[in-house]
Structures are given as C-alpha cells and as structure tokens.
Design goal:
With 169 residues, this protein is mainly α. The chain has one domain. 72% of the residues lie in helices and 0% in strands. The chain is built from 5 helices and no strands. Helix 1 runs antiparallel to helix 5, helix 2 runs parallel beside helix 5 and helix 3 packs antiparallel against helix 5. The longest helix has 44 residues. It is elongated. It starts with a helix and ends in a 12-residue tail after the last helix.
C-alpha cells in the first residue's frame, strides 16, 4: 500500500513539474514578445503601448517564482556548498535533509504569507490592463505550494545525484 502511495506521489510531482515547465516556457515567450513589441512601438512607430510592460511584469513574476519552484525539484536552485562539500557522507546526508526541511518550511511560509497578501489586496485591478490584481498576487502562494511539494518529494526520495555537490569542479 505504501508503494502505491509513493508511486502516486511521484506521478503527481512529475505532472506538476511538466505543467510548471510548460507554463514557464509560455511565460518567457509572452514576456519577451511583449518587450519586443514595446521596443518596436516606442522606437520605430513612436507610440508607446500601455499594456505591454504590465503584461511583461506579470510574466516575469511567474517566470521568477515558478523557476524557483522548478529549481527546487530539479536541484538547480542557487546554493553555496563551499563548506558542506567537505563533510563526511553521513553528515552530508543529514545536512541535505535539513536543507530540504528548511526549503519545505520556506514554501509553506510563502503559501501562508502570500495568501494573506492576496486577501489584503483583493478587489484591486491593474493600472493599464485592468485585470484583477489577485492574478499577480496568487503567484506567490502557488509557487510556495510547489516549492513545498517538491521539497517534500526530495525529503521522501532523498536528493538526486545531480544535486549533490561536485567537488571536482
């Protein structure tokens, strides 16, 4: 029964990672397209668009927060391993577990604080496009939930060999 739950959890996190990756690609494409359109309109046509910068900022916010969550799963998040690389293997495993616990706690905090901010800013609209500002502010709790999910996956499965410090480099 436990194996069935573990496989289900693996499938859930893999699906979440695939959807996240696809949404990040789409967000970066939209963001870059908005920036190109803005530059062309401003310097070639001589007229500025009111919506392109705001949409680019929204896509940048998702690319940043979603990329942070994906970095937790894939192990390419920013880390300093100057000191932990010299620890003996058993100690290193405990330190990696502690880092994963702290990462999960950060994800949970991001969900909690982002949800509070979402509630506070409810009812506002963006200046240029007029979309509900909650769309921008829901990104933090979403990313926090994914960070928590992926950190939990790392805690259950253990860190992959790709995320282990490379002392040869």
């Amino acid at each position: 029964m436990l194996g069935f739950i573990a496989r289900g959890f693996d499938h859930l996190t893999a699906l979440a990672a695939r959807l996240l990756r696809a949404s990040l690609v789409a967000a970066v494409i939209v963001m870059l397209s908005c920036i190109v359109v803005q530059v062309v309109m401003r310097y070639v046509v001589g007229k500025t668009l009111s919506w392109s910068e705001e949409l680019a900022v929204l896509m940048f916010a998702w690319a940043t927060l979603g990329g942070l969550a994906l970095g937790v799963r894939e192990g390419f998040h920013v880390r300093l391993d100057l000191l932990i690389g010299y620890l003996p293997a058993p100690t290193l495993r405990w330190v990696e577990r502690a880092i994963d616990c702290l990462t999960a706690a950060f994800g949970a905090y991001l969900v909690w604080s982002g949800a509070r901010f979402y509630e506070i800013t409810g009812g506002s609209v963006s200046a240029a496009i007029g979309y509900p500002i909650e769309l921008l502010h829901i990104l933090a709790p979403l990313a926090g939930g994914m960070i928590f999910l992926f950190a939990l996956e790392r805690l259950v499965a253990g860190p992959s060999t790709e995320s282990a410090p490379d002392l040869a480099a």
